[in-house]
Amino acid sequence: MAQELSEKELLKMEVEQLKKEVKTPRTPISKTGKEIKDYVEAEAGNDPLLKGIPEDKNPFKEKGGCAIS
Amino acid sequence: MATDGLHENQTLASLKSEAESLKGKLEEERAKLHDVELHQVAERVEALGQFVMKTRRTLKGHGNKVLCMDWCKDKRRVVSSSQDGKVIVWDSFTTNKEHAVTMPCTWVMACAYAPSGCAIACGGLDNKCSVYPLTFDKNENMAAKKKSVAMHTNYLSACSFTNSDMQILTASGDGTCALWDVESGQLLQSFHGHGADVLCLDLAPSETGNTFVSGGCDKKAMVWDMRSGQCVQAFETHESDINSVRYYPSGDAFASGSDDATCRLYDLRADREVAIYSKESIIFGASSVDFSLSGRLLFAGYNDYTINVWDVLKGSRVSILFGHENRVSTLRVSPDGTAFCSGSWDHTLRVWA
């Protein structure tokens, strides 16, 4: 647990971790951002909260009254 | 000996400066990828229109603050847990309570539904995560079948089943996350690296492999490899505790909500923060975040009792939802994206659509 290690041990862990992270492969936002945008555009049609659902198909529509004929 | 003490301090100082210089290098490397802003990439995307989302169901029955909730895969049942120790399973269509159990502790801060829908997991100030099978036998005492799975040395803040009912991932105030086998209660892997309480976690969508993200009081969001127990990426741009983390539906990014009153989006492939969702008028912490199915909308619950809806691509707020009468503490979009449910310190849960 974090609290049980000495300051030196924690720092050593941090330095080791940072050395690894500096080497992480990265891609520019112009590419990854575009992929996020493309994903949204592809899935937007299937997103009920985004495009709305007709009241009669909405499982959470207001509970209607009874019609007695 | 005096000279040992001197040596000790030099090593500490040199470690500190090495850490600082590595952090600087990391910043430099990350800055190289910052060639454009997300909202610039999304400039030509059509703006969103007005949103009309309202409370469709109010679930009343908890006697105190609702702290956590989770949806069942059947898209209608939800489990919620409260400060008073009660854990309730609801049918959100009818608002009926189907199961209820009282935990032996107060502040049940975490609860989760098993993928099969046949069990729930919960825990909090008892420092444990326990699993309760759900049975429809009226004579069965739910509490009698309780199985203690996880043991931490401080409170349980979050829990989640993995792809099956067999394993649970937990996060704790003891600064660690852990993966457990439900049947045996065995610790399969532990995750060390946070410098303070871990408050939240989220598993990557199954297609993207075995990782999860956690957020903590050390202001860090960390991405972990579940098999090796290693942290693969860490982000430290928030200015206060991170209360909630949630993966983007594609698995390539995640959002966070923090006490610094902002929500942020971190792109895993660019290895950096790519958007901040904030407004000067929003000064209270964000407690809980979740995406709509396509990832276009980010729903965030706040300590000022509101829910803000953000346009993930453009960075703007598209709607603000009022209704809760106290802090919103938990928020999840339903599995098929037709609604989202929020839980609050006002003792209720609301389903919005």
From TrEMBL, chain A:
Subcellular location: Cell membrane
InterPro entries tied to this protein: G-protein_gamma, G-protein_gamma-like_dom, GGL_sf
GO cellular component annotations of the record: heterotrimeric G-protein complex
Domain G protein gamma, residue spans: 1-69
A GO MF label: G-protein beta-subunit binding
UniProt biased composition (Basic and acidic residues): 53-69
Membrane disposition: Lipid-anchor
An example Gene Ontology biological process: G protein-coupled receptor signaling pathway
Family: Belongs to the G protein gamma family.
Quaternary structure (record): G proteins are composed of 3 units; alpha, beta and gamma. G proteins are composed of 3 units, alpha, beta and gamma.
Listed name of the protein: Guanine nucleotide-binding protein subunit gamma
Organism: Odobenus rosmarus divergens (Pacific walrus)
From TrEMBL, chain B:
Keyword entries, A-Z: Coiled coil, Repeat, Transducer, WD repeat
WD repeat extents: 59-91, 149-190, 191-234, 235-276, 288-320, 321-353
Record's keyword annotation contains Coiled coil: yes
Domain of life: Eukaryota
Cited Pfam families: WD40_Gbeta
UniProt-listed CDD domains: WD40 (cd00200)
The UniProt record lists the keyword Repeat: yes
GO BP terms in the entry: signal transduction
UniProt feature coiled coil, ranges: 12-39
InterPro entries with a match to the protein in the record: G-protein_beta_1-5, WD40/YVTN_repeat-like_dom_sf, WD40_G-protein_beta-like, WD40_PAC1, WD40_repeat_CS, WD40_repeat_dom_sf, WD40_rpt
Family of this protein: Belongs to the WD repeat G protein beta family.
Quaternary structure, from the entry: Component of a complex composed of RGS9 (isoform RGS9-1), GNB5 and RGS9BP; within this complex, the presence of GNB5 stabilizes both itself and RGS9 and increases RGS9 GTPase-activating protein (GAP) activity. Interacts with RGS7, forming the RGS7-GNB5 complex; within this complex, the presence of GNB5 increases RGS7 GTPase-activating protein (GAP) activity. Interacts with GPR158; promotes the GTPase activator activity of the RGS7-GNB5 complex in absence of glycine, in contrast GTPase activator activity of the RGS7-GNB5 complex is inhibited in presence of glycine. Interacts with RGS6.
Function: Enhances GTPase-activating protein (GAP) activity of regulator of G protein signaling (RGS) proteins, such as RGS7 and RGS9, hence involved in the termination of the signaling initiated by the G protein coupled receptors (GPCRs) by accelerating the GTP hydrolysis on the G-alpha subunits, thereby promoting their inactivation. Increases RGS7 GTPase-activating protein (GAP) activity, thereby regulating mood and cognition. Increases RGS9 GTPase-activating protein (GAP) activity, hence contributes to the deactivation of G protein signaling initiated by D(2) dopamine receptors.
UniProt protein name: Guanine nucleotide-binding protein subunit beta-5
Species: Callorhinus ursinus (Northern fur seal)
Gene from which the chain derives: GNB5
